[in-house]
Amino acid sequence: MALLTYWLGLGSVFADARVALVIGNGAYSSTAQLPNPSHDAEDVASSLKRSGFEVIQGIDLRQADMQDLTIRFARAASRADVAIFYYSGHAMQYNGVNYLMPVDAALTDEADLKRFVRVDDIVNDLQQAKNLRILVLDSCRDNPLAETLKRSATRAASVGRGLSKVEAPRGTIVSFSTQSGQVAADGAGRNSPYTTAFLKHIEEPHEIGDIFRDISSDVYDASGKTQLPELSLSIIGKFYLNGPVSVTIAPGAPQAAPRADPCASAEAHWKAADTIGTVSAFEDHLTRFSGCSFASLAKARIESLKQKVALAPASNSRAGGGKDFDGSWDVTLNCPASGKAQGYTRPLSGTVTNGVFHAEAQVRDGANRLEIDGQIPADGKTTLSARGTTGASAYTLNDLAPGSPYAFTIDAQFDRNRGSGKRNEARPCNLIFVKR
């Protein structure tokens, strides 16, 4: 049964014991230094303190100091109801195991990995907390030392790009700044793009699962649909770091079978709608799950997309009239073979309405989907945004599983009847636009 504890302002606002270890490593001695982690750690530590956490904090930690703090954290987590581990800095994966890098660590061969901190050990430490455990790694940056290890490895080994996926144990939330096997951006401000979103949402009075979904959504939008945080949740019931109600689950006496949960499929449907990203997809989600967790987010997406369309005609008019391009268009995407990835050609069907371009292609079951959107100003020179889901892995550079989301931009030039473009991504691909 659900046991609700209302916080009425009597005594401490936070009724549970909370501990966090916050580390920011940027001043590396043997590889590229990172500008954000020290600021990220300082700001996250301050935010968590405001939410009632006892914070153990470390900036630019050497190997011995990093080990000392993780030992302190393991002991504190065993007495806590809620435990959070946050790390910003260099990390890498080797043979599917993720490692966090102290600032004095070098990497000449496999033996040097013993100087790193294993993420699996941190996950084990987190499991000692009684109710909720959260692992946050803002660390999927490009690590030049990984290439050194790849060249020096004495046996068959895999030095992967970014980090390998970590499945959340029960009662745990795992959030990476980008998807497994991908590299995250550092950003140009005081904080990284991921930590900027984390600081924006973590103190909000919302359910913790919704908070991390909002963080992922913000990073995805702010990156132009190129950086999608990895998020794995395995929590039962609801938990609020800052809110009027704390909810935990406790066993109770046998009761009559409950009614089917109308929101049971909401999360899976939301992920599909968000991947498609169209007004109709979000409206379908709202129709099916109007009273569930993602309804407000669906409404916001619909409103945002409709505003973009509404503003497009006025924008084009000021630029001199993008309506010259209105009509139906045929689009051909041609990607030659690159490395292990096979070449392919894809036709898309497009339209331009009031200077707003949209084209899409889709095969059965939604895999290998592709949509292209953007505005065409009067001079025909534009940058289009594309997003989709992968088909067969033989056609991708990064061995992404079929159905994985991806995004890129296209630099294009249109005249009234034809156009050409080039995809801004590692793989060189060309596009031809022909008006019907």
Strand content: 25-35%
- List the total number of helices: 9
Radius of gyration: 24 Å
Low-confidence parts: 1-13, 245-257, 313-321
The number of strands is 19
Q: Main sheet?
A: 8 strands, antiparallel, barrel
Structural class: alpha+beta
Q: How would you describe the shape?
A: globular
End-to-end Cα distance, whole Å, is 62 Å
Textual characterization of the structure:
By secondary structure, this protein is of the alpha+beta class. The chain contains 9 helices and 19 strands. The protein has helices spanning 37-50, 63-77, 119-126, 145-152, 193-201, 208-222, 266-276, 279-288, 295-319, and strands at 2-6, 18-24, 54-59, 82-88, 91-94, 97-100, 117-118, 132-138, 172-176, 230-234, 245-249, 327-335, 344-353, 356-361, 370-375, 381-389, 405-414, 418-424, 430-435. Strands 12-13-14-15-16-17-18-19 form an 8-stranded antiparallel β-barrel. A hairpin with a 5-residue loop joins strand 18 and strand 19. The longest helix has 25 residues, at 295-319. It is globular and about 70 Å long. The chain starts with a strand and ends with a strand.
